[in-house]
Amino acid sequence: MEFIDYYKILGIDKNATDDDIKKAYRKLARKLHPDLNPNDKEAHHKFQQVNEANEVLSDPEKRKKYDKYGKDWQHADQFEQQQQQRSQRPGFSGRQPFGEQGEGDFSEFFESLFGRASQGRQPKFRGEDYNAELKMDLVDTLTTRQQTLTVNNKNIRITLPAGIENGQVIKLAGYGGPGVNGGPAGDLYITFSIAPHPRFRRSGNDLLTAASIDLYTAVLGGEATIETLNGAVKMKVNPGTQNGTKVRLKGKGMPVYKKEGETGDLYVTYTVKIPTDLTEQERKLFTELTKLKKD
Question: What is d(CA 228, CA 226) in angstroms, rounded to the nearest whole number?
Answer without folding.
Answer: 6
